[in-house]
Structures are given as C-alpha cells and as structure tokens.
C-alpha cells in the first residue's frame, strides 16, 4: 500500500472448530505485506473492540455450526445485534466485509455468516467489499483464496474514501471478478512467500521454479499417472505460488512420568459430561449386509442427564490406539508416550496473540494428548502442508508437498488429500523423509471433536435409558490412502461393545447375564426444533431411511406412552416412510409393525432399493419415490391440516431428493409453478413445520 504509516482495520473471527480463526490468522499475516495492520480478535472478546464507535473498516470471518447456527463464540454477539430496540441507523458509520464459511451439504448453508450480514445491513452498516460464502463441501479455498486476494484492493479503496471523507455505497466487485484485477494491480509475490530449495542452493527470485528440482526425478515421473506422491503436467512444470510459512508459537517440554492424566471432562467445554455404562448392544443388520448397524443402550438412571425424543447427544471418543502408537513411532517418540508434557507459548513468537490451545491440558502425558485431544484423522490444511515442507529432507518429497499447498496444485489437493480423506499419518507414510516436531502437531491439528448421535428412545417409555443407532463407518483403501479404516468413534464403539455382541464364557456370570460394564462419556446437545408437535392432535409425517429412522423410534415410543396415559386426548395421524437396501438384511426395526398394530403409527410405508422386483411393475426403490405416491396426503397434512414433516438421514442422496419431491407435490396440488412451490416450502421451514436432521 502506498502510505507511510500502516493503516489499521479491525479483524474479527467466530470459529467453532478453528477454521475461521486459521483464515483470520492468514489475513492478519498477509496484512503486513500490504502495509496494513489487522487488529485481530475473537468476536466473543467484546471488551476488546466496540463496533458502536469503530471508524476503521471491519473484516469478519465467521463459520456455521449445527444445522445453521452461528458458532458458540458468536452467540453473545449475535444476541446483542439482534436486540430489536436498536434503531435502523445504529451502524450507519460502519464499513465491513464478511467471509462466511459453511457446507452446502446442509440446508442452511453459511447461515451463521448470513445472519450477521443481514442484521448488520438492517442496522445501516455498509459493505466495502462483497460478502464471500465459502463451501467446505467442495473446498473452502476455492472462495477463500480469491476473496483474500481481492480484500487488499477493497481495503485500499475504503481507506481512500475515508481520506476524501466521502463513503461510496457501492460494494467492490465480488471476489471472482476482483481477484484477477488485484493480481494485476498488486504484485502477488508481496503476499506469497518465495521459498528456496536449500538442497539445490538455488534462490527463487519470484516463485518456486520446477528447475530447482532434480531433473532426473522429473524425467522418471513424466509419464506416470499423478498421485498423492507425484504430480504431472502442468503442475510438475509450473512455478509455484505457495503460502507464507506460519510462525511457530508452541513450545513443548517433557517432564517425568509421575502423576495422573486429567479427567475427560476437562477437555470438553460444551457442557456437563456424564460417564455412563453401556448395558446393551444389538446388531440390527445381518452379517451379509453392506453396512453394519448397531443399537446401544446406555444406563442414565444415576445421572441428571435429561433429553426429549429428537434431541442429540455427543460421545467423547479417543483416537485409534494403533494409529497413536504408529504416530509416536514415526515421530521417534515411542519411549516418551507416558511422559508428562508441559505446553506453553514460545517466547519471541511472531504469531499475534498466541495462546496455548484450550483443548490441550496444562499437564498430561503425550499419549493422552494424541489419544483424547488432537484430531489426528483431520484432513491437513494447506498451512499445515506448508509447515511440513520445512520438515522434509528429500527434494522430490519437498517439491510435492509444495505443489499440494500451492495455488497451482489446488486440484491435486482436492483430489488426493481432501476427497481421499488423507490424514497426517497417511502423509507421513507417503513422505517418509518428513519428520515434524511435536509442537507442529499441536499447532496445526484441530481439537478432537466429540461425535453427535440422535437419541433413539423416549425417557417416558424407557425411564433411565438412552438408546442410539449408528452404522460402523468404513473408509475403504484408495490410491492416495492404501490402508482401510473405520470411523474414529463408530470403530471404537464397535470394539468396545464386542463382548456384548459376542459374549464368551469369560463375560457371562453364573446366571448367563453379561458382566461387561464398559462406560462411555457423553454430554447433551439438545435440539431446539426437531421435536414432536406440542399439540398431539396435529398430524405429522416422518421420513427416515436406514439409521435415519433413529429419532423416530423415540417419537413413536413417546407417542405410544402418551396414548396409554391419556386415553381422553385426541391424537393426529402419523406417517413413517422407511427404506433400506434389503428387507431380509437391513430392515433395522421390524417391530415397527407393533406400533402399527397398536395404533401409535397410522401409516407405515417401506421400500427396499436392492431387492429384485418380482411384480410386473417395479415397486419404488427410494423413500422420495414413495413420498410421491402419496402426493395428496402430503399436501393435505402440510397445507390443510397444518401438520409437520420430519426428515432424518443422508442429505445429498436422500433429503434433497425428498425436498424435490415435496416441491413437486406442492406445485401439482396447489396448481402453481415450481418457484411458488419452493417459496411455500421455505415458509414451512421458517414456521418450523418442515424439519430436517441430516448429515453429509
């Protein structure tokens, strides 16, 4: 920037899992190269900034959590700006640019950012730069990178308009159109660090050049198919723009082996944790089913844990033991696993506002940190790859890691890392000369998240019990990751309850009962909307194929108990659409017939997508096809009787198909075009009568 003094802008981030913070830190780091100073704060630190009096431009990076909520760190901020006593011009003085992060697999894409953006506009704030919405489904960097590129020119214009004391109400062109112009006007090498390959002793004058890599290596791989460990043209022949090296900020000190690790509750900030025994485990699918579904029953009788049907809860799970051991071995720390470590901020670090990650205990063993605190299965971000470059000694491996974190290697990153679910351990296997330090792992690996599951029971029907259903997640081997593996939590749970599923003489008591008393730690994650209608006379429809049926078992158990206790109440009709692959292999709850027979369930419609049709006319394969068969009933329940419609399960391959079916039904029955039908569906969503609990 052409100015003598660094111009300041306020940089706020609201993060749930660390993504928004990492992007804000990237903006903060690049700002200096543009002659700017980013005053960076978490949006929750409202004592450190004041938007009511802020005169400089504001940049906000905000993620979305749950089904469309702002992250926990933004809740107080959102509550504050949503105060309806605020006047329309409350933020008329404010200029801002907002980058929202989300996942289009979910219905309310980037809703955290959209909520803040919309409210700031209502209160008179002005965009100095168009809002960016980044999609984690296809890769955040596809929007994030060009949005950051365009930010500097937008800030420059905002400062110029301040200087001239005339603020323009026109937003700067969007990132997609602004980015090329920025790259032309501003020398991109000013915000991209140009590295050297020390092994060759060659300095790059602008960007990394392929010439600095051993030519024999290039020749040997020229005709081979690109993979995780090798590239092909044009990437292999390109000069590379790679991110700046993130400054190290963590220092790890090893101590003795005496003491106790902290309780698991200390690594959870979301709420009260409960350690509860697993009292029952049932395999719901046959051995030859494509997926293995388990039902677990937990005993919550001795706790104050409370829930409603439709609520979710979280299971605190560890990383795989063998993966932790292998990671320790690769790091050369096998003998240090039981040593306690002290983690603190590195003196003299260049990282602004550096603090120790909250999910790392003050004192615990190395093995505890790798097992319970860090998500070692996380897909490495480009900043992590950039840091790993410095830990890699082999020239060819170094170049490939540089390619994977570069702009030119974006498609390779998506294909071989993101889409292949490659994790740190996979990278260390693929690049054996890469030997990262422990502090690097703590700096770049995110917090190990507890896994969320829908309750599949009713406390009214089964007092003191909490049930849930899940498929054991399988990740088959692929080109980029030659080792197959199970989901972190589902694989652990399956191993944990194996004695309950396959009891041996050692696990049975004298009466034949099971003596296994395995316990797991859980905490509540209530759902504010995915509940039964408050009025029992209101009809509702449920769509839940596969394990998506889980919360509806709780719904039906609850409804059955209410019918037994309140014989004078009026109850609306209930519909359930269920589907699975094979009737004899994975029809998870055949006892649904019992609900049908006792009148709790009015209509049960099932379909089996992989069973061979014997009738002349093939039956519908998927739940969305069955829903279409009952178009008049769906329209009647939703439009005339003001009923509810619930969907639970896979979003991409099911929930979107059901939504399309409902739109077509509304269009046909209301005799309106598709756009009007979509508006009606949007109104049903807004009224909380069309509800989804879906996952990608």
TrEMBL record:
Q: Where is this region: Disordered?
A: 215-236
Main subcellular location of this protein, as a coarse class: cytoplasm
**Residue stretches spanning the membrane:** none
Q: Name one GO cellular component term.
A: cytosol
Show where the Flavodoxin-like domain sits. Answer: 9-152
> What range(s) does the FAD-binding FR-type domain occupy?
271-533
Report the EC number(s), separated by commas if there are several.
1.16.1.8
The alphabetized UniProt keywords are: Amino-acid biosynthesis, Cytoplasm, FAD, Flavoprotein, FMN, Methionine biosynthesis, NADP, Oxidoreductase, Phosphoprotein, S-adenosyl-L-methionine
Q: Does the keyword Phosphoprotein apply?
A: yes
One Gene Ontology term from the biological process aspect of the record? homocysteine metabolic process
Q: Which GO terms describe its molecular function?
A: [methionine synthase] reductase (NADPH) activity; flavin adenine dinucleotide binding; FMN binding
Needed cofactors, names only, are: FAD; FMN
Record has Membrane as a keyword:
no
Output this protein's name.
Methionine synthase reductase
Taxonomic lineage is:
Eukaryota, Metazoa, Chordata, Craniata, Vertebrata
């Amino acid at each position: 920037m052409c100015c003598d003094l660094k111009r300041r802008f306020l940089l706020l981030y609201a993060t749930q899992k660390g993504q928004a913070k990492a992007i804000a830190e990237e903006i903060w780091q690049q700002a200096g190269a543009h002659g700017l100073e980013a005053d960076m704060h978490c949006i929750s630190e409202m004592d450190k900034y004041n938007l009511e009096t802020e005169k400089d431009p504001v940049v906000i990076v905000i993620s979305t959590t749950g089904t469309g909520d702002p992250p926990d760190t933004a809740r107080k901020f959102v509550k504050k700006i949503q105060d309806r006593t605020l006047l329309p011009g409350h933020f008329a003085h404010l200029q801002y640019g907002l980058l929202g992060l989300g996942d289009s697999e979910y219905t309310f894409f980037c809703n955290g950012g959209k909520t803040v953006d919309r409210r700031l506009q209502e209160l008179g704030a002005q965009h100095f730069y168009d809002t960016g919405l980044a999609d984690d489904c296809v890769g955040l960097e596809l929007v994030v990178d060009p949005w950051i590129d365009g930010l500097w020119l937008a800030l420059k214009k905002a400062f110029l308009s301040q200087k001239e004391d005339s603020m323009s109400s026109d937003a700067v062109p969007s990132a997609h159109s602004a980015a090329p112009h920025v790259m032309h006007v501003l020398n991109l090498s000013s915000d991209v660090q140009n590295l050297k390959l020390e092994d060759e002793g060659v300095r790059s004058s602008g960007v990394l050049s392929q010439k600095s890599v051993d030519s024999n290596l290039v020749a040997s791989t020229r005709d081979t198919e690109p993979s995780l460990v090798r590239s092909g043209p044009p990437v292999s022949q390109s000069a590379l723009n790679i991110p700046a090296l993130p400054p190290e900020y963590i220092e790890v000190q090893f101590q003795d082996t005496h003491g106790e690790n902290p309780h698991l509750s200390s690594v959870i900030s979301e709420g009260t944790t409960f350690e509860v025994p697993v009292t029952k485990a049932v395999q719901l699918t046959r051995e030859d089913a494509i997926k293995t579904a388990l039902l677990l029953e937990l005993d919550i009788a001795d706790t104050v844990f409370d829930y409603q049907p439709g609520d979710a809860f979280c299971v605190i799970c560890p990383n795989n033991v063998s993966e932790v051991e292998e990671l320790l071995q690769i790091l050369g720390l096998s003998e240090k696993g039981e040593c306690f470590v002290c983690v603190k901020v590195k003196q003299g670090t260049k990282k602004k506002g550096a603090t120790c990650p909250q999910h790392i205990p003050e004192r615990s063993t190395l093995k505890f940190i790798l097992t319970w605190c860090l998500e070692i299965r996380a897909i490495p971000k480009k900043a992590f790859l950039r840091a790993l470059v410095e830990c890699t000694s082999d020239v060819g491996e170094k170049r490939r890691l540089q390619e994977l974190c570069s702009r030119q290697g974006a498609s390779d990153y998506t294909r071989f890392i993101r889409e292949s679910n490659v994790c740190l351990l996979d990278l260390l296997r693929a690049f054996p000369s890469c030997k990262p330090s422990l502090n690097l792992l703590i700096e770049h690996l995110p917090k190990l998240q507890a896994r969320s599951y829908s309750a599949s029971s009713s406390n009214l029907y089964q007092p003191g019990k909490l049930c849930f259903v899940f498929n054991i997640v399988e990740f088959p081997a692929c080109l980029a990751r030659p080792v197959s593996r199970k989901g972190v939590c589902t694989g652990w749970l399956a191993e944990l309850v194996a004695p309950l599923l396959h009891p041996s003489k050692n696990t049975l008591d004298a009466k034949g009962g099971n003596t296994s008393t395995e316990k797991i730690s859980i905490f509540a994650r209530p759902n504010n909307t995915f509940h039964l209608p408050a009025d029992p006379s209101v009809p509702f429809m449920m769509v839940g194929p596969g394990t998506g049926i889980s919360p509806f078992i709780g719904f039906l158990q609850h409804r059955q108990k209410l019918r037994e206790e309140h014989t004078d109440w009026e109850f609306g009709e209930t519909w359930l659409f269920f589907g699975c692959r094979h009737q004899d292999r994975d029809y998870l709850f055949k006892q649904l017939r019992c609900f049908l027979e006792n009148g709790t369930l009015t209509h049960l419609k099932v379909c089996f997508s992989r069973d061979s049709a014997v009738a002349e006319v093939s039956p519908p394969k998927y739940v969305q096809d069955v829903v279409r068969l009952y178009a008049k009933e769906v329209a009647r329940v939703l439009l005339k009787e003001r009923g509810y419609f619930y969907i639970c399960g896979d979003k991409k391959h099911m929930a979107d198909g059901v939504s399309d079916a409902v739109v077509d039904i509304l269009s046909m029955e209301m005799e309106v075009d598709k756009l009007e039908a979509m508006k009606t569906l949007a109104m049903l969503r807004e009224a909380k009568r069309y509800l989804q609990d879906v996952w990608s």
